[in-house]
Amino acid sequence: MAANTQYIVILGAAESGVGAALLAQAKGFGVFVSDKGAIQPQYKEKLAKAGIEFEENQHSLDRILQASEVIKSPGIPEKAPVIKALREQKIPIYSEIEFASRYTKARFVAITGTNGKTTTTLLTYHLLKEAGLNVGLAGNIGYSLAEQVIEDKHAYYVLELSSFQLDDIAGFHPWISLLLNITPDHLDRYEYSMEKYAEAKLRITANQGLDDYFIYNADDENIERFARTAFMTAFTMPFSLHHRPDYHLAGYYEDDCTLRVHLPIEDRHPDKVSIKNSPLIGQHNHQNMAAAILAARVAGVSPAQIEAALASFKNAAHRLQLVRELNDIQFIDDSKATNVEAAWYALDGIKRPIVWIAGGTDKGNDYTSIQPLAEQKVKALICLGVDNAKLRTAFDGKVPHVAETQSMVEAVRQAAALASPGDVVLLSPCCASFDLFKNYEDRGQQFAAAVQSLAPSESAKSV
User: Fold this and answer.
1) Final residue before a domain boundary, out of 279, 312, 345
2) Domain check: are 253 and 150 in the same one?
3) Can you give the residue ranges of the Mur ligase central domain (predicted)?
4) Residues with a known catalytic role
């Protein structure tokens, strides 16, 4: 069927939806965009400028059910009435990633996992770009893949992909796929089944062939459990934090600073990559770096190029980000740590004594797993939240000093006064931000502003 005889409906008019609409128009399709909510002004302007018809605050089923195929936002669940109606009519539904991939011959490096996707995606992109590869960045981060494919000026794209985006692929084919971890998340979208959630993550490998590569974390129990049942023809490249005789590892750490790499390509000899100049800290970031380094090596980036690029990498904000060093006290913003697991990684990764700022909207947290680390590493805890009772109960008696406040400025001042030279003041909240802040970004920005406003004399133990 000729392209101009087809009619494509886009559900959702944010970054991915508007990009898909622009690409569909560029390829000669009839296009209609429908959003159940309000469309942000910048996206309305893009659609209007392109002359693409759209609606907001409703889904007009009479228009939508005329579609030859539908491109849907990853945020729309299967149980939404509009999706149910489309399924009943057997109208194909795809993700923006699937649609965009039809119109480029670029190679995809696709990254998924419950945690660490953004850091690993940004780092992989940085390693490839610094080595001179013609690479774009898309998916959950950066700009719409579909909109970039209109000009199609990149030879490679590094993509951050959620399970929701992978749910609606058919032929999407990554050259290199990376699976970082599988831990319970968004299970309401998967009938509260870990197996169904894991299947969604493993769809990243579904169309890979003999010339493709699957990089995965051999230390993750759920990957180990569910990957065994997945049929794969790609080269499998497991990595680990340690040498493991039970795996033929593509990468593992000989020590804290050295990743040993053995690629299943042309029987290459093992090589080593030093991560000692990387600003990333913590075991989870060792895993993220291993995945990104293996992807870069497959793409032909040399160990020397990787080591140079690691030193210049800047992570996304609010992820174990050094804000300031004052009187030999480091102030670190980890506001993105909105659950216990993320905060555990932060405490585990920091080697200095810690004054810890935590708290916020508790999401049913169980602090048991983090208590031993807190006892070992935390000299003081500042509870920053509207209701700190659960946090205080969990750590009173386990941390030498526990205080509380509902002011970020006061929390930072108290922490600075309690810290000694050589310590770290760590904002790693364990909780959502909505009790006192707009979001985790607002919380991190307020922390940084309060830290920057500290005078040297406000550290009680300044020298």
Assistant:
1) 312
2) yes
3) 111-296
4) 117, 140, 186
